[in-house]
Amino acid sequence: MRLLIMGAPGAGKGTQAPALAAHHGVPAISTGDIFRANVKSGTELGKKVEALLAAGDLVPDSLTEEIIADRLDQPDTANGFLLDGFPRNMHQVEALDAYLTSKGQALDAVVFLDVDPEVLITRLLRRAELEGRADDNEETIRRRMDIYSSETKPLLDHYAAKGLLVDVNGIGSVEEVDARIQAAVKEHLAK
Ligand code: B4P
Questions:
Q1: Which class in CATH covers the domain with range 2-186?
Q2: What would the pLDDT profile of 68-100 be if each residue is shown by its tens digit?
Q3: pLDDT tens digits, one per residue of 44-64
Q4: Residues 155 and 148: beta-carbon distance below 8 Å
Q5: Are strands 165-169 and 81-84 parallel, antiparallel or unpaired?
Q6: CB within 10 Å: which end of the chain, N or C, has fewer?
């Protein structure tokens, strides 16, 4: 099973990805988590991306695409994967398509978590209080939202045209959203 989970910053991708991935017996792979782990442990990659993350800017495509290709080459993806936070622009979509084609593989579904912008900002500011993530301040959140609207949101049309998009209402409790995702993916795969 090869899945993507997409949505604006704060839509619940990282929150929902582990359960969805576990349900399908595949690893959840988050580019954001990979970058943050590298920043935390002070690796060369971490040093390269720290300022970009803190500003809410995207990490360069070449770097992100190389990291994803290396990660997808690991043996635990033999039965598939769930990508959280990748692809984020058309260049990354094309890189993923090229990677999958080279392996004779294809995506099964793209889950889109649909959440109102007002709710997103409230969630992220709350996370700022709880976790103190460097990119959860009002200015950076706005920057991430702008990049999402201009670069990532248009990808939804691309996946809808391919018949892969699974639209899910992301407002409600974590458990409610999880149940909606499971039901919608099941229905999509049965088509
Ligand atoms: P990400 O880690 O993807 O950050 P995000 O968009 O904020 O999503 P995240 O998964 O963390 O949050 P979630 O919506 O689950 O990216 C961070 C940065 O990494 C980017 O800005 C960029 O710099 C870089 N990056 C990542 N991928 C890249 C790529 N492909 N190319 C280039 N650069 C890349 O949750 C948010 C909050 O909402 C949480 O506190 C959660 O508890 C809460 N929440 C979730 N669901 C809820 C619900 N149902 N009800 C109430 N609260 C809920």
A1: alpha beta
A2: 999 999 999 999 999 999 999 999 999 999 999
A3: 999 999 999 999 999 999 999
A4: no
A5: unpaired
A6: C
Sheet containing strand 2-6, strands side by side: 28-30, 81-84, 2-6, 109-114, 165-169
Residue 12 Ramachandran class (φ > 0 left, ψ -120 to 50 alpha, else beta)? left
User: What is the value of pTM for the model shown?
Assistant: 0.94
Amino acid symbol at 160: A
Residue from 15, 71, 115 whose mutation best tests the ligand 1 pocket (most atoms within 8 A of CB):
15
Helices (H), 31-116: 31-40, 44-55, 61-72, 90-102
Instruction: Return the best residue to mutate from 4, 6, 30, 31 for the ligand 1 pocket (most ligand atoms within 8 A of CB).
Output: 31
Q: β-strands 165-169, 28-30: how paired?
A: unpaired
Catalytic one of 13, 36, 123, 180: 13
